[in-house]
Every structure is written in C-alpha cells, then in structure tokens.
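Q: Got a minute? One more chain.
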Amino acid sequence: MSHDGWNVIEKSSERSQLLSDIVRNLSEVTSGALTGADLYAFTSESVQVALSRTITRLEKEMEDKGSAKLIVTKDDFNIAAKLLVPSVSEEDLIHYENLASNHFNQ
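A: Always. Here it is, folded:
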C-alpha cells in the first residue's frame, strides 16, 4: 500500500487503540505493499482464525453452540497478519502508482 494509503488507514484508526495496534502490526510484518484486496483477505483471515478458535473452545467445553458469539480479538488479527502474503510486490506497487500518477497528472 502506498505511503498515502497507510496514512489514511492510520488517521482513520486514531480513535481505536486496537485498530491502531493492528495497523502498526501489519506495517511491521509486511513490506507495506498491500492492496485493497490484501486488506480484505487480512480481515477475512482474521475472522477465520477467530472462528477456528471459537469452534475449538466450544468442542472442548461442550457449550450450547447456539449461544456462542464470534468475537475477533487482537490475537486473531496478529495471527492473520503473520499469514498475510501481499498480492503485489512493493516494487510493482510503486511502479503502478507511478503509472497512475503520470496518467492522471497529464
């Protein structure tokens, strides 16, 4: 993701410490070359991690599965961040941003 893209995400997450921590963690474990599709995959993976954790807990505790709530925690996001593989290299993303910049600034 471009530097401007990270700035937008960080600015929008200022009011949420959890979201700020998640964004910071994402920028540490990736090169920062994330697309919108990568962010979607990241959030989807976070939900899948939470779902797996919840199902495992329910199976161990034999709780009423109908009353369980799915809560995505910071740990779920951290696990998903470690699994995230950007779909575009940082070099390619810079190249595409330069192309777009040249095209739209003419």
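A: Residues 16 and 89 are 29 Å apart (CA to CA).
Q: Perfect, thanks.
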